[in-house]
Amino acid sequence: xxxxxxxxxxxxxxxxxxxxxxxxxxxxxxxxxxxxxxxxxxxxxxxxxxxxxxxxxxxxxxxxxxxxxxxxxxxxxxxxxxxxxxxxxxxxxxxxxxxxxxxxxxxxxxxxxxxxxxxxxxxxxxxxxxxxxxxxxxxxxxxxxxxxxxxxxxxxxxxxxxxxxxxxxxxxxxxxxxxxxxxxxxxxxxxxxxxxxxxxxxxxxxxxxxxxxxxxxxxxxxxxxxxxxxxxxxxxxxxxxxxxxxxxxxxxxxxxxxxxxxxxxxxxxxxxxxxxxxxxxxxxxxxxxxxxxxxxxxxxxxxxxxxxxxxxxxxxxxxxxxxxxxxxxxxxxxxxxxxxxxxxxxxxxxxxxxxxxxxxxxxxxxxxxxxxxxxxxxxxxxxxxxxxxxxxxxxxxxxxxxxxxxxxxxxxxxxxxxxxxxxxxxxxxxxxxxxxxxxxxxxxxxxxxxxxxxxxxxxxxxxxxxxxxxxxxxxxxxxxxxxxxxxxxxxxxxxxxxxxxxxxxxxxxxxxxxxxxxxxxxxxxxxxxxxxxxxxxxxxxxxxxxxxxxxxxxxxxxxxxxxxxxxxxxxxxxxxxxxxxxxxxxxxxxxxxxxxxxxxxxxxxxxxxxxxxxxxxxxxxxxxxxxxxxxxxxxxxxxxxxxxxxxxxxxxxxxxxxxxxxxxxxxxxxxxxxxxxxxxxxxxxxxxxxxxxxxxxxxxxxxxxxxxxxxxxxxxxxxxxxxxxxxxxxxxxxxxxxxxxxxxxxxxxxxxxxxxxxxxxxxxxxxxxxxxxxxxxxxxxxxxxxxxxxxxxxxxxxxxxxxxxxxxxxxxxxxxxxxxxxxxxxxxxxxxxxxxxxxxxxxxxxxxxxxxxxxxxxxxxxxxxxxxxxxxxxxxxxxxxxxxxxxxxxxxxxxxxxxxxxxxxxxxxxxxxxxxxxxxxxxxxxxxxxxxxxxxxxxxxxxxxxxxxxxxxxxxxxxxxxxxxxxxxxxxxxxxxxxxxxxxxxxxxxxxxxxxxxxxxxx
Length: 1003
Description:
CATH class of the largest domain: Alpha Beta
């Protein structure tokens, strides 16, 4: 539905603004010629004063000296001469007696009450040709040896002839010294000012240069002087020219002040202010048209809308449909031509959107009414440039330029607020700006939004480009009045999804995925933040449409690895029928973490569904991610160069400024770390810059850039010392290892070692998942020894690394490490592990061809390792054809996130594992003394053979040890333990427990 709009209702505030703008337009018109003349005059004066050392003010008979920002008497008619032998205290009386003037009047010239110059001012005066003649001072037709100046309460002689600079009466040689006053326009020892500032000083003091000096600008100067004399309060310096304070002129005209240079009267201005109808000319209509076409360019840097959207009766603009409908209006804006408004409810797309909110980037897909699943371009709004792969990923980065301006606009409207891309940016723009920023701008970027959400205690400092600082609490503690970066990011994502660049492009149904390791409370707060942000991106006319908004929902879907598993199962042709079943595992190697998922796909027994996906195990490696690997590489490079970083300037004298950096994802102490590890903006930007330089080694190891780095053993990077000093293109040595008699880069082995640890943990977690679930009679999960085959799906961009595939191949071969980890003997049959590469890769296409499946390379409609999660969200959504069953100790909550154990012979001995039930007590150790508690999220802990160094230690002090009792522990949520002291479990019930349990926060 569309309508033609020729009148726009406006609020009292807007009416006042429009009426003020009407008067402002009068002022603009009347002042245009005056401002043109002022601009030319300013340019002329500015150019002349670059070289002119003195300017004669003909109306006052004085000289203006730019170097002292002051006036000097006419040298041809003024000047006193006094012998340097006269004592300082008698100089004034000597002048009065010699020249017949009163002592109090000797420094008055041309009505200016002058004073003796300072030493610095004298030196500047005698340097100009006006006063100096060779080695003498020329005043009033006579020559003298120098000029007098005042220093505190004494008078001194500045002697040009012999260079002597002494107090009067104490000179070794008697010389005739000129005594001349100056008149300061800007205080003692003023520094030179611009020509524009000079022009204002001249006007303020009634000074007019000679016609000869003014040349063709004398008319403009005289006009300026006459107006300044009457209206000095209305002249300002703006953009390096003198202009008029038009806002003040408008206000005072309305208040009753008349102006000679304004053709309209105060009475006319009052009539406009009292009018309730504002009529605008075509010029304004053009401005409104441009504003409407560029509205989302202004908000989110989307393409400018084409002009037909305002005039085609079948199209129309959302913002015109309910212009100020929810506001109390006070008048109307009458347009010279009608514009087409469109009801946004007509553009509702009944498709369902899946959002995979990633650590490094976010992807969005939707299922349309024809059951097609397609990716959405959310990386930028530049659709006019055609299909660009990078536009299908939105880097998870927010840049804060002007927080207060953004938040004021953001809160001012319920939907599609008039925010500015110049205040906050996201996506590729923010990411590129971060890569090119200086250290002092680091805190204006937030590039760890998802990690912050999942961290219990992390506080965040944001400092925008204007210097405004906002300290954010941990995500779960965020209050409504706090800035919510997740909501802001979701708002921009919503603008990329819901806009007028395409027909029917408002979506109301959204499904999101979250990491399996995030608490229920965190996931719900993230969901609500996305809901608020996306809602904010919708038109206000739609928000007020209750019937339409009943469809709006942002809901949590299945976990990220489970979503990917369903996509991969379909794409690789898994189709179990009857009693057949397909066991699967997912190694979801993302940017921040690696998630493990274990399950089985069966044909559904219900006619409502095609399949049943039973998810019976989840685990992960919280610090194994592509970005964290790069952070680890950067950390190792910095550590290798620690001596250089401790003294980058090589200066052995004076203070030494260090080049700091931050920890890797897992803290690793080293000798000297206390001097280099900082939580400062310099440390963070240094880590960021080195990560970006190292990125080719991880993402394109066979590329020219990576090979050049590895071959040279050197990497160049822009770094900042702790005082902010930049060290551009600083050369750092890469970690090295001896290989076949030669020194080679050790970076690949660093990557391999960390990834192998994650894959080892994967198989430990797989065994644990089967061990815990095989006894479940309801869902009949087989024991691991009874399973014939298990598919291993690689997911996430990081899983594309050849290192990942190589290590998996080594582990799953007949005599590989997986056999030992899973507890199978040398000759004992074990499941066949089949590795499936990340979707969308050449390896995946090859695998699909081997399976006889159709292959569609580079087809954006087909899922990839990055988009597979979003596709899977839609496959597994409520109301779809796949039933997802989650088997966890308590499926309503995230399971306990740690293994709790003790140190036994330097090995981690597990007492509680990740699959334990909440609130169940476990005997930990006797209560005869204080004790150490170890915890880790590494699945290898379940083997009881892992070194204690995989864990973190908490020392617990018992106030009153009880030798005949025990310490019992229990998990109460995903990151919290309680412990209590009791002689047996019977004492642990609420009635008999003597003291409240003590809480231990983990993480």
